[in-house]
Each structure stands twice: as structure tokens, then as C-alpha cells.
């Protein structure tokens, strides 16, 4: 099966050290207003600042997104596995990067936590229409994160990125779900 998910972007995330911890959200909120002028002159838009503030003051249930203190276009994300899914009980770490032409281009997102899912490959890339041809500048970071959370509840083996996982899902759904639960316990337990 050929996937419609084709990625044409460089490995942006390899430029950011993965050993960095989440900065304190409170510190960001206190310093954002003071740094707005500086950030605007360095290319950070009001929209990004507003979206970030809303994500931090009103986070979507089960989702945490914290900007890196030195690069407000780079976010560390944690998504709780949805209940009644094979990912329930897991906490999945992701990284999200806003390209310089955001919101005209979709954010670049990938899983850092290993996951057994037909729409997520072994390096964490995600096959999801809002990250490719269905992206619109009207969408926001919040929309992308909620869509990823929904994808965990409803894997789609008919539009796979991980063909081997999709084949397993189609041939033996209960076996694939069990393997997804095992991987969640092994790789996404906090």
C-alpha cells in the first residue's frame, strides 16, 4: 500500500537538544508580556504569542504544550493517551516547531515517545491531513494537538504511514491493539 503521507521538510527537530526539560510555565507567562516587543522584532508574531498564552492558561484536557524558553517557536508537548484507547494510561512526548511562515504553513510535529500506531512511523512522523493538504491558516496549534489526540482514539490503517503496523491492524486488529497497549506500558508510562 502506498501512503499519501509524504514529508518534504528537513529534520528541523534534530537542531534542538532533546535533553532539555520543560521550562516553568509560570515564568513564561510572566516574561512574555515584557518580551513581546523584542520577540516581534525577531519575527515572532502576535498570533504565536496569543496562541501560546492561551495554550498555557487554558490547556486542552490531557494536553500540555510548553514553549522552549530560548526559542518560542519550539514546543515540548505531552499528550495523555485517551481513555478507552490502546494508549490509555500513557503520556506521549512530542515536539512541535512553528516554521517561519506559520500560520501560512502547518506546524512540524513528531512523537518523541515510541508508539505502535498505523499513522505514526518509527521516527515519530505523523500522517494527518491537517499537517499536510488540509492545513489552513485559520487552524491553530491547539487544533493540531487536539487532532493528534483524536488520532490516538481512532487509528486509520487505511491511510498509513507505518505500513507494517497498518497491515497488522487490518489482519489482526485485536492483536495490534494488544501490541499498542504493551508499547504504551513499556514506552509511555510515567
Automatic annotation (TrEMBL):
| Assigned keywords, A-Z | ATP-binding, Nucleotide-binding, Transferase, Ubl conjugation pathway
Q: Which domain of life is it from?
A: Eukaryota
Q: What is this protein called?
A: E2 ubiquitin-conjugating enzyme
Q: Does the keyword ATP-binding apply?
A: yes
Q: What class of enzyme is it?
A: transferase
Task: Identify the taxonomic lineage of the organism of origin.
Answer: Eukaryota, Discoba, Heterolobosea, Tetramitia, Eutetramitia
The record's annotation in PROSITE patterns points to: UBC_2
UBC core domain location? 43-189
Q: What is its EC number?
A: 2.3.2.23
